[in-house]
Amino acid sequence: MSPLLSIQNLQVDFGGHGAPFRALHGLSLDVTRGRTLALVGESGSGKSVTAQAILRILPRAATISGGRILFDTGRGATDIAALPPDGPEMRAIRGAGIAMIFQEPMTCLSPLHTIGDQVGEALRIHANASRAEADARAKDAFARVGFPDPERALHTYPFELSGGLRQRAMIAMALILKPALLVADEPTTALDVTTQAQILALLTRLQDETGMAILLITHDLGVVANVAHDVAVLYRGRLVEAGPRDTVMRKPGHAYLKALLHAVPRFDMAPGERLTPIRPAKAVIQPARKPVAIDSPILRVAGVSKTFTLRSGRFGGPPRVVRAVSDVSLDLAPGTTLGLVGESGSGKTTVSKMVMRALTPDSGRVLFNDGSGPRDIHALAGADLFAYRRAVQFVFQDPYASLDPRMTVRQILTEPMEIHGIGTRERRARAEALMAMVGLEAGALGRYPHAFSGGQRQRIGIARALALDPKVLVLDEPVSALDVSVQAQILNLLKDLQAALGLSYLIVSHNLAVIDYMADTIAVMCRGRIVGQAPKAALFRNPVHPYTRALLAAVPDPSLDHPLDFSAITGDHSDPVRWPEPYRLAPDEAGHMVEIEPGYFVRQGAADARRAA
Amino acid sequence: MIAVLRRVLTMAVTLLVISALVFAIIKLPPGDFLTNRIMELRSMGEAASVAKAELLIRQYGLDRPVTEQYLIWVGLMPGPAGFSGLLQGDWGWSFEYDRPVSEVVGDALWLTLVVNLAALVFVHLVAIPIAIYSATHRHTAGDAIVTVLGYVGLAVPGFLLALILLFYANIWFGLSIGGLYDASFTGKPWDWPKIKSLVAHLAVPTLVIGLGGTAAMIRRMRANLLDELAKPYTVTARAKGMPPLRALLKYPFRMSLNPFVADIGNLLPHLVSGSVLVSLVLSLPTVGPLLLDALKSQDQFMAGFILMFVALLTLVGMLISDLVLVWLDPRIRMGAR
After folding, report:
1. Beta bridge partners of A301
2. Total domains present in chain B
3. ipTM of this predicted structure
4. Is B231 an 8 Å CB contact of chain A?
């Protein structure tokens, strides 16, 4: 049987204002009916360009300068590459024959139209359906992708939905006309692991039901190992490897796929094993004077709670109160790393903001001890507060948004020192030392952030955090906005800096593998509470709490021997009422922490106490 | 609904505060129309006229303290003729025209609205299609031409264009394009021929007043649209196979409307004050020139009324724009971020 989609010798060129360059150098691929082809590569490898070329939605500056894209429409093969991009034939293929889902479900849906309208739209365009017909079909589509209340979904706006439901709405929109090919461009990258597993399960189920082909674009080899039938690896616009999944992944002949496999944190890494970055960077770190060794924690979060009052939805309703953080206690020992894991909305970022004193807790204290005894940071004022600001620094998630585009790197690095009154000459010398520490050339100090790649920008962000010689760094998802190829560099850099400077890290992430690689102690948060807290080895060896288990079970593993159990991922894992005894918590019940082995605490409900009484 | 009522209530309070400010500012320069007039008449020795002016002073309570004068004007305090102020619908007496303000302003008020609403409709009808063309054909010859014309339109002052049109219309076509209807209809009741004359005369003022706004709107709309065209949901719409124009109107265009709707509050008062110069040049019987005269001659009730009218238009405009935004944008309606 002929393939559904056959890309032959495809060549795409970018012209326009910048220097012209070739994004695809004669790519040839086949997508077969009923199978999933994973297109793997780092950013800039040409995988998204391939997807855009198939749908002919390339940016204006790009042109298809050679090759063919043959798509079997059912009435013979059409060369998509030869059609005018906005002509009627191409429009008829889009949506009806080939549909696409994107990475960021929020920005891909219009906030001004209900999802019912947006999902039914393809039907009204291609099948000339009436509004009522479109609504009825959209309702079916919502039911198929797992909306709890399809009728209500018709009248729901995207901003009323969680990330997972938004992506389900996107899938419903793509699949309403039962296209033969679904192009999915990083469909789960912006989602929590548990939501990712549910979406992957959904895509697999829908493929079984409809027999559609999926072209899955991803950089996550764990996702590839779990859902792909075939794999194609792209590197700089060229196909470097292709074939059935097992052949490619068991014997990664090409050095590049092997390098990709070793550049991301995995759970089966040997203790002390380092990640191997694809492109190693050299950092020169001057070991600083080690901080005075103290036994007590440098940072102690003692029973903090925080609620937010939200304006009610419609006019005139009572305001809603949301408990973001309830009675959270954490200890950060000097020179170690504390990892805080949880899904989005679990309250982990709120905790990090209270540590930074960007938010004030409603109750509880945050104690900082630099050797002179613990002091409540929310009671600090004047010079003491100024000193605290210097001791605790923040590294942001998004290196694109967190650097001022109108400041040179030198200005970015010296501004904190200027604020804290460090002399001009010392500032200059320090800026150069900081650049060496994060593995960048001192010559680049005069350049602006836009001249740097994402990974380099994150290094600049780290250098800025280090400018004042802090004792504690708060790292909020430090690599989740970065390409796979540079995550290893940044994580290794952070580890080296910690070893040389004796820093203490509080790292917040939803990525369990990253936390596993970085942290000494891990706290798992769910709905504003800590449900498990343990030394790393103990937590991963014996994940007793149902929520921790669900998080771990949802991480797709790149090795083919540990496939995800999609049936185990139900979406109930974050509801304390549905946890099995003794972990079950009644609504509003706080439960209590029980030490199950030395240093390993788990939250349990009061069921035992109730039974005893 | 409760929110709308609350808005209307705050509007009333705001209006009251504005009225106090307006009155204070009008009263700020020393003297008023009548005292100036009396001095003038005395110097000419016209005793009879002086007596009449003094009667007016008493009649309008201008001999009372300023605060009382204010309260009488607003209608919160009984004046010489009982409660008779803005609240009761008595807009006061124009000393300069020696007629009630309502009579002087009457036609001018709604003619102003007609002229400027025509200009507003013109601006949107012309600017939106051009902006859409310009945004979707970025960096083409058409876009460049539109952009240059837009800058010319922005740079040419309205009154200058009015003068030029006035001059050439007369030379080439022998037309007098001043006024809003043929001179022969002045003071006549509004019958069908007069209305036809009005419509015919509207074209030039509409073009002149609207030109600057059109150019500005093209620039802003184009910039807004370009931002929205780069958003992923526009790509999603294309990926669904929507025809380009339909996709454009449904998604990016709708998104780019918000700032314009938010602008309605500023546009309405601009209707009155924005076209004063053009109205003078084209001798349009609108409120603008009246306001200018009233302020110059300290004709206080006249000036006060027109300023209050502008303030009311501003507040009503803001209410309308807020209500339209709530209707147009579910994020505002549901209090989302």
Report:
1. A330, A366
2. 2
3. 0.76
4. yes
